[in-house]
Automatic annotation (TrEMBL):
Residues 379-538 form the CCAAT-binding factor domain. Residues 12-108 form the Nucleolar complex-associated protein 3 N-terminal domain. One of its GO terms (molecular function) is chromatin binding. Residues 251-285 form a coiled coil. InterPro entries: ARM-type_fold, CCAAT-binding_factor, Noc3_N, Nucleolar_cplx-assoc_3. One of its GO terms (cellular component) is nucleolus. One of its GO terms (biological process) is DNA replication initiation. The keyword Hydrolase does not apply. Its main location: nucleus. Keywords: Coiled coil, Nucleus. This is NOC3-like protein.
Length: 613
């Protein structure tokens, strides 16, 4: 039995190989071989011992054959009149080839779709990877993805997109990953945006149909869109008017001299070519505009319904990435939506897993309201998204983002209590967001507020690993550059600017009275850090950013953005990047006072550093 199976496999494999080679060597001559390959992929007339293996092998082979022999143009079916017309032998042969190719391509796509859709069961059953049907279904998804990206210009490409999007509601993870990878590649490689429009529209429809209960991977595929600009206004085409002028000029030809007619005609033709080129670009922009409308509609629906907190991350990242393409009319609504998202509950660390829980309403007006937990990362994304929006065309809006400053200020003390594996990603996002909040808006933000953030960031850094700590110090150095009057924080001889005492326990940065204190104790404490880079940054800030002398900082470090310290190529600059040097000392000190948590964190840090004074 085993020997017979092996012999049958080898024989059929050789047949598949021979048919594929003939099709590739001369597609028009051997186009009928598509029928034989299709029968094998469909499992027709195959011995039961080799049926499953040969079906998968034939499907893979046929996919590659189609990718290689599909022409670089869209095939349209001939009209009835064209069928009745007499044609040259070569023309007739080409038409027969095209129609045969199209017929079997459609049959093959329908076959793949039939297998692929088996991965969307009505019940939530678990799939067995060893099952032959599951293997064939998973392979069909891969084949559809290859055909989409190998022949996205060809017939039925939109049908493939619709099928792959439907697969994304499956509970078979690898199929969802393959579908999303294919869709992301399509978005990435599409510069005309026609296929992108169809993909975004299909995703938007699915999100609406499923009440936003879709895979985060599907939402994340939209990141791959290559759209850099959209159409701001609807411009009327100039081509009809120019053609009308050209026709009128031809009627007046007899009344004009030859040279004058030629000159006017040349000008009109040049204007017409320019208008046609402009309209081609306008069509591309229209596709891009319509695509982004569907993308933003998807994001809004998810934010409104929020079926799972996992969707919030890709939605907020997407809003940040494409904020410059958002119509200014929607800015106020989006910011209001994000305000509601943050302000429903206070975002704090509440348990040993270091998650911050906030409860917010998803479906307003219902008594039995669904609630979700908003993680620290999600809250930071909310703030980041708002300031991305406000840094573009949103600058023209009269919106006070104070509540987002207050939220970020409060979230900072949550960072030391997050999972260690999440902290670097969170700090990277924080320093990016603070750059927009403090540096990009330096003309709108008060010195008192900046000083409060500097004090809190320094306090938080003591309980973070070395890489995060350096990123924070690099950010603070940038704040000193953007806000020169912060030098009062490192000048022990200068009188305090405000009266009263510093309140580290306040959650409002404007009420913390940060300008009544100094950051000298924190920076002196950092001189005891084992990492030399930390010492250098601290000394440079302590001496008010000198450009020469022993406190000067290497130009390589000053030119880097704070978030660049998390790049792979920069990680070698730090000797011990993962060590939290002061952790044991702070925990031991806090143990004598009270339990260390985000509410009392900065107050305890202030008491801990006080002996340095």
């Amino acid at each position: 039995m085993i020997a017979k199976r092996k012999q049958l496999l080898e024989t059929t494999k050789q047949e598949i190989s021979n048919m594929s080679l003939k099709l590739l060597s001369n597609p028009q001559e051997h186009i009928y071989r598509l029928r034989d390959l299709f029968k094998l992929a469909a499992g027709h007339d195959l011995h039961h011992l080799i049926r499953d293996n040969i079906m998968r092998l034939a499907a893979v082979s046929l996919s590659q054959v189609f990718i290689d022999i599909i022409p670089g143009y869209h095939i349209r079916p001939p009209t009835e009149e064209e069928k009745k017309q007499k044609m040259k032998k070569d023309t007739k042969k080409l038409m027969e080839f095209e129609q045969t190719l199209l017929r079997y391509y459609l049959k093959f796509l329908q076959l793949l779709e039939k297998f692929a859709l088996k991965l969307i069961p009505r019940d939530r059953k678990v799939f067995d990877d060893k099952c032959a049907d599951v293997k064939m279904s998973a392979l069909s998804v891969k084949c559809l993805g290859r055909l989409l990206n190998g022949a996205s210009h060809f017939n039925y490409a939109t049908n493939i997109v619709e099928c792959l999007v439907r697969i994304c509601v499956s509970n078979y993870t690898s199929a969802v990953e393959d579908s999303c990878a294919a869709l992301a590649q399509m978005f990435k490689e599409d510069y005309i945006f026609k296929m992108s429009l169809h993909g975004a529209k299909t995703i938007a429809n699915l999100v609406n149909q499923k009440a936003s209960a879709v895979s985060p991977l599907l939402i994340r595929t939209l990141f791959s869109l290559n759209i850099k600009e959209v159409q701001k206004t609807d411009e009327k085409s100039k081509i009809p008017d120019l053609k009308k002028k050209k026709f009128q000029l031809a009627k007046e030809r007899k009344s004009k001299s030859a040279s004058k007619y030629k000159k006017q005609l040349q000008k009109l033709e040049n204007d017409l070519k320019e208008a046609e080129a402009s309209e081609s670009m306008s069509t591309k922009l229209k596709y891009a505009t319509d695509t982004m409308n569907h993308v933003f509609m998807t994001y809004f629906r998810v934010l409104k319904r929020m079926p799972t907190a996992a969707l919030l991350d890709p939605v907020l990242e997407g809003l940040s990435k494409f904020a410059h393409l958002l119509n200014i009319e929607f800015f106020t609504d989006i910011i209001s939506c994000l305000e509601d998202l943050i302000d429903q509950k206070h975002l704090r660390v509440t348990d040993a897993i270091h998650c911050v829980h906030t409860v917010f309403v998803i479906l307003s007006g219902e008594e039995d309201q669904e609630r979700q937990h908003l993680r620290v990362t999600d809250a930071i994304h909310c703030v980041h998204t708002v300031f991305v929006i406000l840094s573009g065309e949103g600058q023209a809006l009269n919106i006070d983002p104070f509540r987002f400053y207050k939220t970020m200020y409060r979230l900072l003390t949550d960072l030391p209590f997050q999972k260690k594996e999440d902290q670097e990603r969170q700090v990277e996002l924080v320093v990016r967001t603070l750059d927009r909040m403090i540096n990009a808006r330096r003309k709108q933000i008060s010195l008192l507020r900046v000083a409060a953030f500097v004090k809190r960031i320094l306090a938080v850094g003591f309980m973070m690993n070395t890489r995060c700590h350096i990123a924070f110090l690099a950010a603070i150095r940038n704040y000193f550059v953007a806000h020169p009057r912060l030098s009062s924080l490192v000048d022990d001889e200068q009188e305090v600017i405000t009266n009263g005492i510093f309140r580290p326990d306040m959650e409002d940065p404007d009420c913390s009275n940060a300008l009544s204190t100094t950051i000298i104790p924190e920076l002196q404490k950092l001189q005891k850090h084992k990492e030399k880079l930390v010492q250098q940054f601290a000394l440079n800030i302590l001496k008010n950013l000198p450009n020469s002398g022993p406190a000067q900082l290497n130009g390589q470090y000053t030119s880097m953005k704070p978030w660049n310290w998390f790049d792979e190529e920069r990680k070698t600059l730090i000797v011990n990047p993962d060590i939290v040097y002061f952790e044991k000392e702070i925990n031991a000190f806090a143990g004598k006072k009270k339990e260390l948590n985000s509410d009392v964190y900065q107050g305890i840090i202030q008491k801990w550093i006080s002996p340095v004074l």
